[in-house]
Amino acid sequence: MTASLEVTGLDFAYPDGTPALRGVDLRIDPGERVALLGPNGAGKTTFVLQLNGILTPTAGTVAVGGLPVRKPNLQEIRRRVGIVFQDPDDQLFMPTVREDVAFGPANFGVTGAELTARVDAALAEVGMAGHADRSPLHLSGGQRRRVALATVLACDPEILVLDEPSSNLDPVARRELAETLLRLDRTLLMVTHDLPYALQLCPRSVVVDDGRVVADGPTRDLLADADLLRAHRLELPFGFALA
C-alpha cells in the first residue's frame, strides 16, 4: 500500500545555519488520523511547510501518495496536501462562501458542473450548505473555520493538514468541528497543543522536539506518560483525567 505521506531522513536548516529538522522519519497510511505534538519551537510548522514545497529540505525526501515533493510536481503536490491554517481569514477572501470554496478547485482547472458539485459536496461535508451565498464576514468563528476546511476539501486532497484547529473556538464550536472532522473519510495530520483534542480525534500521535521525532505511538499511551510530557513541555489541562 502506498503511503499517504512518506518522510525519510528529513533535515532542514535556515539560511543562517540554524537546524530546524533533524533526521525526521514519518509514514502515514491512507485513512490514518495522526496528531503532531510538541512545544513551541519544536519544528512542527517548519515540518508542515516541507509537505507542499514551501520550504525545501536540506536533506532527505518527502512523498505524498508516492509523488516526490519536487519542483516539477508542486502544482499536483499542493492539490494533494490540503493545509487548513490556524486563522480562517488567511483562506477566506471572496465575497461569498460559495466563491471561496470554488476558488481552489477552479485554480486547479475544475470547471462547470464538476466545480459546482465539488463546492456543494464540500459544504455539505462540513455542515455549511445553507450558508453558501453568505459573506464569510458574517459567519461566526467556528463557521469560518468549517468553511476554510471546505475550501480544502473541494480540492480532494490526499492528506488533510490542520494547524491548531481548535484554537480560539468556544466549546460548542470546538465540539462541532470535532464532529465534522470525525465524519470525514480522509487521511489527517493535525498540528496541535490541545492534547484532549488530539486524544478525541487522533488514535496516533507523534511528538516532535528540537527538530526530532521523540515519540510515536497510540495517543492515549503517550498522554499517559507523565515523564514524556514533562520532558517536552507538554501538559494536560488541570483536572483532565484519561478515562
Could you describe the 3D structure shown?
- There is one protein chain.
- The protein has helices at 44-51, 74-80, 97-107, 112-125, 141-153, 171-183, 195-201, 219-223, 226-231, and strands at residues 5-13, 19-28, 33-37, 59-64, 67-68, 81-84, 159-163, 187-191, 204-209, 212-218.
- The chain is of the alpha/beta class and 243 residues long.
- The chain has one domain (5-231): P-loop containing nucleotide triphosphate hydrolases (Rossmann fold).
- Strands 6-7-8-3-9-10 form a six-stranded mixed beta sheet, sandwiched between helices. The protein has a four-stranded antiparallel beta sheet with strand order 2-1-4-5, covered by helices on one side.
- α3 (97-107) crosses α4, α3 (97-107) packs parallel to α5 and α4 (112-125) crosses α5.
- The radius of gyration is 18 Å and the shape is globular.
